[in-house]
């Protein structure tokens, strides 16, 4: 199975570099990576050009000019440009555990999307992680993270579980699977069927919204939050806007009330530019 990895970013090349090296350490190798860039300045492009030859996998920079928060728009552009039959989504502040893509590829099944987990790191730990730590697997190792300032927590203990315990915890958790921007995957044709991400949405539930429409289309979420893990680097969130969150909530309420599967403002216009079609 050819897999396309979509990594979103905006003006944080230091964190993005750590994430890109994280995909160099993956045990699963049959993938391409698309950086979905919501209008970053030149340093992000320069970073990608500088390190791409040494990453060991193909990487493409999908960019559009900055015109406010348009993460859903650049995500749809990346989906349209992708070559894989199966797509994995994460953010440019999430370092993957070395087995992350292998887990998603092994557990992929028709009629489902996968919902992975994360561990949020404090700023001190985030800054301490080096390229060498990432390539050696230390950046997702529980003992190393604890020694570098990450507090003990239930989330952190997920990094300790073996495959049997992680599978058991995923099968018994009461937490419903949701489509998470930091760690989720789906079949490309299912994403086309629901017309991708809703480009009316800004920050605040935009990832969950596409999962809700996938569910309405009969594509059910599958919980793998204990088996598929990323570590989330610390940062501020200056893009929160209460009025946008309220508008997002109204759209999601309509999706729920009317059992909507397809957004009217989504992927189709990008597919027409790329020469693709709807499934």
Note down, in words, how this protein is organized.
This protein is an alpha/beta fold and 279 residues long. The protein is 42% helix and 17% strand. It has one domain: Spore Coat Polysaccharide Biosynthesis Protein SpsA, Chain A, CATH 3.90.550. The two termini are 19 Å apart.
The SSE order reads EHEHEHEEHEEHHHHHEHHEEHH
Please tell me how large the radius of gyration is: 18 Å
Largest sheet: 7 strands, mixed
- Class derived from helix and strand content: alpha/beta
Summarize the structure.
By secondary structure, this protein is of the alpha/beta class. It has one domain: Alpha-Beta Complex (Spore Coat Polysaccharide Biosynthesis Protein SpsA, Chain A), CATH 3.90.550.
Topology:
Blueprint: E1 3-9, H1 13-24, E2 31-37, H2 42-55, E3 59-63, H3 71-81, E4 86-91, E5 94-96, H4 100-107, E6 112-115, E7 117-120, H5 123-128, H6 131-135, H7 142-147, H8 154-157, H9 163-172, E8 184-187, H10 188-193, H11 206-216, E9 220-223, E10 229-232, H12 242-258, H13 268-274
Parallel strand pairs: 1-2, 1-4, 2-3, 6-9, 7-10
Antiparallel strand pairs: 4-8, 5-10, 6-8
Helix pairs in contact: 1-2, 11-12
Features:
single chain; 279 residues; alpha/beta; Spore Coat Polysaccharide Biosynthesis Protein SpsA, Chain A; 13 helices; 10 strands; 17% strand; globular
């Amino acid at each position: 199975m050819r897999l396309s990895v979509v990594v979103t970013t905006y003006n944080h090349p230091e964190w993005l570099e750590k994430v890109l090296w994280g995909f160099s350490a993956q045990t699963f190798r049959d993938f391409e990576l698309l950086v979905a860039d919501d209008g970053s300045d030149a340093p992000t492009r320069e970073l990608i050009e500088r390190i791409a030859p040494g990453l060991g996998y193909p990487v493409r920079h999908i960019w559009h000019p900055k015109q406010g928060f348009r993460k859903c728009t650049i995500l749809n552009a990346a989906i349209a440009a992708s070559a894989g039959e199966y797509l994995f989504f994460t953010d440019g502040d999430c370092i993957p555990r070395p087995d992350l893509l292998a887990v998603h590829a092994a557990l992929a099944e028709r009629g489902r999307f996968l919902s992975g987990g994360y561990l949020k790191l404090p700023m001190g730990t985030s800054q301490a992680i080096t390229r060498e730590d990432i390539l050696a697997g230390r950046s997702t190792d529980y003992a190393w993270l604890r020694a570098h300032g990450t507090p003990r927590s239930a989330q952190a203990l997920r990094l300790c579980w073996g495959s049997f315990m992680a599978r058991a915890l995923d099968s018994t958790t009461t937490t419903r699977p949701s489509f998470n921007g930091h760690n989720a995957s789906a079949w490309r044709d299912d994403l086309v069927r629901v017309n991708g991400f809703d480009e009316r949405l800004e920050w605040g539930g935009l990832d969950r919204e596409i999962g809700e429409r996938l569910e309405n289309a009969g594509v059910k979420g599958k919980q793998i939050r204990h088996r598929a893990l990323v570590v989330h680097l610390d940062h501020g969130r200056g893009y929160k806007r209460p009025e946008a969150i309220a508008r997002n909530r109204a759209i999601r309420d309509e999706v729920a009330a009317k059992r909507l599967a397809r957004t009217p403002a989504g992927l189709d216009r990008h597919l027409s530019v790329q020469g693709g079609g709807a499934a």
